[in-house]
Amino acid sequence: MQRSLRPVLILTAVLALLGFGITPSTAATPITVATAIGRQDGSTASVTGYVVGQPTATSTVVRSNFPNDYALALADSASQTSTGSMLYVQIPATFRASYGLQSNPGLMGKQITVTGTLAAYFSHAGLKDATAFTGGGGSTDPGDPSDYYAPAAGKTGAALKAALHTIISDQTKLSYDQVWNALKDTDQDPANANNVILLYSGRSQSKSTNGGGVNDWNREHVWAKSHGDFGTATGPGTDIHHLRPEDVSVNSARGNLDFDNGGTTVTECPGCTADGDSFAPRAAVRGDVARMILYMAVRYEGGDGWPNLEPNNSVNNGSAPYIGKLTVLKAWSAADPPDAFEKRRNEVIYTTYQHNRNPFIDHPEWITSIWP
SUPFAM superfamilies of this UniProt entry (predicted)? Predict the structure, then answer.
């Protein structure tokens, strides 16, 4: 055996001396982002790093409102903000649906490995012509982080609700003024980055027309703030998991009504109905409304200085910390499961703003476990 290998070794040595080195693939062992930045020589490498945004210019990386799926930035730390310590990665068309940030905002902060050519991109240290992306859970529907809900694994009923409360109560809180800009991001029209989609009416409207005037959009509290009298102070009054853009007059028409089927058509809100004690949004977002209400019921349990919010099967709940009807909300969630818009919204809130999730978007089946 040794005798048969000797000619190969001799040939390899001779070729190396002649400048035809036979070396292992540089892509075999992943390198760091710092190494990749220092090795912009056109060689092939696999680079492991954390997704920290999307490069849009030589010294500009955006962390939200991603314009497309064409590029991402990697760093050796998920908290890196200096572009000089980032590697700009070009995303070929084959990988955009799974690793483009517009389609997969949940990749922010995730660790991935990319194999490609170490060459400048946006006149910045980069990696181009990628042949492989791995890690990060990249897909057109990245779902929830597997470890986020780990403390709830195997639980049902009251135990599940308690575990989820603990998990989602770890959040960054916004001021009521900060909500304006957050909603311009979370509710952005997928077909027009200059607009937001109004929740109940479904209208696409310019982000800049927020305010209190006729036909402006304002901040609708899906869990009406008078149900528990929590107002707009930081806490449930500023939690963007249930705050949505809506036309001023439609917001007023909903008021603090509970949710139920029936009623007559609401002006400027196609598909919406209301009567003296209840409101029903258009069918396409009834599940969204239900999951927002149930999120609030799990997040705010009365132990952190805020009222204990709960759904019930009544209307006319007034200032009590209740909203109905639970049976209708459960039916709405089953009939209108989470769609791409709602899932993206959950990801953006998680990755960019509050850093907590609505568990019923990730796991709608938990609704009937907690409220059988």
Answer: His-Me finger endonucleases (SSF54060)
The pairing of beta strand 111-118 with beta strand 126-135: antiparallel
Beta-sheet strand order (sheet of 204-206): 188-189, 192-197, 204-206
217, 196 contact by CB (below 8 A): yes
Look up residue 4 and give its amino acid: S
Neighbours of 18 (CB within 10 A): 8
Q: What are phi and psi of 190, to 5 degrees?
A: -60, -25
Say whether pTM exceeds 0.85. Answer: no
**172-219 pLDDT, tens per residue?**
999 999 999 999 999 999 999 999 999 999 999 999 999 999 899 999
| Inter-axis angle of helices 286-299 and 340-348, nearest 10 | 30
Contact 112, 135 (CB under 8 A): yes
Specify the residue for token string 């901040």.
Answer: 219
Q: What is the pLDDT of residues 300-346, one digit of tens each?
A: 999 888 999 999 999 999 999 999 999 999 999 999 999 999 999 99
Phi, psi of 28 (to 5 degrees): -65, -45
Kindly list the distances between the CA atom of residue 139 and the CA atoms of 14, 53, 188, in Å, as whole numbers in the listed order: 47, 17, 20
Domain ranges of the chain: 33-135, 150-370
Q: How far apart are CA 273 and CA 159, in angstroms?
A: 36
CATH of 33-135, one of 1.10.940.10, 2.60.40.10, 2.40.50.200, 3.30.70.330: 2.40.50.200
CA-derived radius of gyration, the chain: 25
**Residue keyed to tokens 């258009």:** 282
Cα(370)–Cα(372) distance, rounded to whole angstroms? 6
Tokens representing residue 178 in the block: 């900060």
- Residue of 167, 171, 135 lying closest to 149 (CA atoms): 167
